[in-house]
Design goal:
Keywords: Cell projection, Cilium, Cytoplasm. This protein has a 5-stranded mixed β-sheet, with no helix packed on it. A 5-stranded mixed β-sheet has the order 11-18-17-13-15, with no helix packed on it. It has a 5-stranded mixed β-sheet with strand order 20-27-26-22-24, with no helix packed on it. The protein is an all-beta fold. The protein is elongated and about 165 Å long. Helix content is 0%, strand content 55%. The chain has 3 domains: 101 residues, Sandwich (Immunoglobulin-like), CATH 2.60.40; 118 residues, Immunoglobulins (Immunoglobulin-like), CATH 2.60.40; 100 residues, Immunoglobulin-like (Sandwich), CATH 2.60.40.
Length: 352
């Protein structure tokens, strides 16, 4: 008061933090497999409830990163209103993760939520890394069983498969080389023949080899498929001994040959298989215009046998053709060859 007494005034009050309830302030995802696009997300929901009598503003300054993402938008909460925030954990490496998320209430009060987790590798191992399924003969069968153990810290759902390389065409046929899971009485396969193994649990995989023709020595990989990713398990090796005999040509054209003369061509029979065999041509089917020599014999593995084909037409004809002349192979399919030519009249000699 100007030119007057000084009057003391006492002001009293108290400040309290806004009453906000968090669903949790610490959350551990535990071990989770390293993330890739085809995997389902690891997600938890943070709930925030306004327990005050007045509205409150909620904000968060957390900067998301590849391994931990927060789907958050600043919001005003009315009394007793609740908001839910999804938190996604996508581990990139097999390490321990820990992040603090700081929430601001009314721009002043701060609350921290700690999120932790562990990146883990898919680790299903075969107790036998190389399986020798044997050297079979055609139509013989062989099977081998291999135990698979889940050494991951989590359950793993997977299938097994073997995809033979294109370098061995005989393995491409259905049912020649296959692998399947053999669950025990307490295990069950899913509709896509997948199985879920708990940590330290094991299952048996069976490899079946049923060759229908010669298969050269092969080495093929059995793989495990889980959530769209493939992991090598073990290698299968084997072979099937059999006949593999062929001709270097299945059609021999002789062209034009003069009446009462002959023309000769040579072809080769090759044995690139593992077994020798007798052969025998249907020589009588070559007559009367063609002949072959030798007509029969034996061909050993790795051997080549030459044949002389002779065209000796017996009559004038513009198109002489013998289709699918057969050579019978002991224990195998017959080989076939087609011969063609034409017979022309001899041009008279003119004196000059």
């Amino acid at each position: 008061i100007s030119n007057g007494p000084i009057l003391p005034i006492t002001l009293k009050g108290c400040g309290i933090e806004p009453s906000v309830e968090f669903g949790f302030t610490e959350y551990d995802f535990g071990p989770r497999f390293l993330h890739h696009p085809n995997m389902p997300p690891n997600v938890t929901t943070i709930s925030i409830t306004n327990k005050d009598v007045k509205e409150l503003s909620i904000d968060c300054n957390y900067i998301k990163n590849p391994y931990l993402d927060l789907l958050f938008e600043p919001q005003i909460l009315e009394p007793e209103e609740c908001m839910e925030i999804d938190c996604y954990f996508r581990p990139q490496e097999p390490i321990r993760y820990s992040e603090n998320m700081v929430f601001e209430i009314n721009g002043i009060c701060k609350k921290t939520v700690t999120i932790t987790g562990q990146g883990a590798l898919v680790k299903v191992e075969a107790l036998q890394k190389v399986v020798n399924i044997g050297a079979l003969i055609v139509h013989e069968k062989s099977s081998k069983k291999v135990k698979l153990v889940n050494k991951s810290p989590l359950a793993v759902t997977f299938t097994v498969n073997i995809v033979p390389s294109a370098q061995v065409p005989a393995l491409q046929e259905a049912g020649v080389l296959s692998v399947s899971l053999c669950p025990n009485k307490l295990q069950q396969l899913g509709p896509d023949k997948e199985i879920t193994l708990k940590p330290k649990e094991a299952v048996t995989a069976e490899v079946l080899f049923c060759p229908t023709s010669r298969v050269p020595q092969f080495s093929e990989e059995v793989i495990m498929e889980s959530h769209g990713l493939s992991y090598p398990l073990f290698v299968v090796r084997g072979s099937c001994q059999g006949l593999e005999i062929s001709l270097d040509s299945d059609h021999v054209p002789f062209g034009a040959v003069v009446m009462n003369s002959r023309s000769c061509r040579r072809i080769l029979m090759m044995n690139t298989g593992d077994i020798g065999a007798k052969f025998n041509w249907d020589a009588e089917k070559f007559a009367p215009d063609f002949s072959i020599f030798p007509t029969s014999g034996y061909i050993s593995p790795g051997m080549e046998v030459p044949f002389d084909l002779i065209f000796h037409p017996r009559g004038m004809q513009s198109d002489i053709r013998y289709d699918n002349l057969k050579c019978h192979i002991e224990g195998g399919r017959p080989l076939k060859i087609t011969l063609s030519g034409m017979c022309i009249e001899q041009v008279p000699y003119k004196e000059v």
